[in-house]
């Protein structure tokens, strides 16, 4: 993924989930 994204864990995420996945 790009390094321009902000590392934020979405709801129900157990790790750094990427918005691309």
Describe the structure.
- This protein is largely without helices or strands and 21 residues long.
- The chain has no helices and no strands.
- The chain is elongated and about 20 Å long.
- The relative contact order is 0.35.
- The model has no long low-confidence stretch (mean pLDDT 60).
Number of helices: 0
- Specify the overall morphology: elongated
Largest sheet: none
Mean pLDDT rating: 60
Domain ETF-QO/FixX C-terminal: 1-19
InterPro entries: ETF-QO/FixX_C
Protein name: ETF-QO/FixX C-terminal domain-containing protein
GO molecular function: iron-sulfur cluster binding; metal ion binding
Sum up the structure in keywords.
21 residues, iron-sulfur cluster binding, little secondary structure, 0% helix, iron
Write a brief structural summary.
By secondary structure, the chain is mostly loops. It has no helices and no strands.
């Amino acid at each position: 993924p790009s390094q321009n994204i902000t590392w934020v864990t979405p709801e129900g995420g157990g790790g750094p989930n990427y918005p691309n996945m």
